[in-house]
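Posting this for the archive.
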Amino acid sequence: MNTPAATGDLRRTLGFRDLVLLAMGTVIGSGIYLVPGVVLRQTGGHTGSAMLVWIVAGGLSLLGALTYAELGAMKPDAGGLYAFIRDAFGPLPAFLFGWTSFFVIASGSVATLAVAFSGYVAQIVPIAPIASRVIAIAVIVLTAAINVRGTRESATVQNWTTGLKVGALLVMGIGLIAFGHPPRDAATTLWPSSVTPSVLTGFGTAMIGVLWAYEGWQYVTFSAGETLDPQRTFPRAITVATAALIVTYLLASFGYIAALGPDAAAQSDHIAADAVGALLGPIAGKLVGALILVSIFSAANGLLLTAPRMYYAMARDGLFFKRLAVVDKRFGTPAFAISAIALWAAVLAVSGTFEQLLTYVVFTGWIFYGLGGLAVLQLRRKEPDANRPFRVPGYPITPLLFVASAALLVGNTVIAQPVRAAAGITVMLAGMPAFYLWRAKSHRALIVLPPEPMER
């Protein structure tokens, strides 16, 4: 189903560096400044186990990146993962992905980032509650305006903000390792004395949390339709970005432990601020807070640079509001799609409902990420002769391992929190009536009535 509703096509303006920094910037929010302490706590305070969690989860994410690299090179169109699922499994699951993303996952993530931004501002400069909400809305409006004005302009902002936060994380990690104090008895703090069921349970729980911390690189697939020389650029960029994320996270996590020691790091809920504070004193909180502000802004900008392209593709297929497929003639962006998700994100931010919605629904994204992995196998079967400039190495083991990690996340949520899982799946399936309504409207629009006979 490809019935263009757009007034034009998206311009290809993104290069290799843009995609690398876009993928990294969308992933790195505030989690890396907080999560490593939780991971160390869940692994019993053992440094080796905690680092292994980051390596294994990062490796699974890299398998997913390699899998999506084949799909992005094969089908370098706007919509990315939405298009992969659509072509492999049909329009219904693809629509449900886009539906859930628009109304909860992507919009809720933008709202979460905006509110978190205002929260960290309040830690640096005391502000009233009403001012906090104003700041959250201002962040959404500013990022939306940047993205409406042009993909190139937004990518430039993304490059600078991501470069700044990644550079700061690397410098911080290396500095903490160099000037920190390693544990006195490394042998007892590195690994558990024996592998017990509780050790395995803690490792698995920690890995699920770290997989969430790596989540977000999938968004770069939505920008495949704006990538220069996508068959060559996209596979390299998504692979390099994911590998660089692993290195960045490992350096930062180990740096925190080196500065605080395993015991103190495991008890910290603000591990980055505490670690930097151990070396620099009271000024550390404000420095880390400023870094987190840049990090959050970059992640929000990355979401608004990528996610609207999926809604553009849905509307172009006749499965979403028609205006979302319109490309602004002046700026060359899906301006209405960007504005629509920004407006809805602002409503969620002001109402505060995004927290509960995200809690229930965000895990459903991994159902579709797993489907994206399975799409490689399905499209190899359906389209064996299609041009594949890049083929995922280790096929079919590579995509199957990634699908298994997605199934682990989803299955853990269903078992551990059945009420949350049921609520999330209900929200997702609520899109089915909307799908059939839009498809019926699209089919009616395609009907061409025969011309009336001419009067004699």
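The domain at 16-442 is CATH 1.20.1740.10 (Amino acid/polyamine transporter I). The chain has one domain: 16-442.
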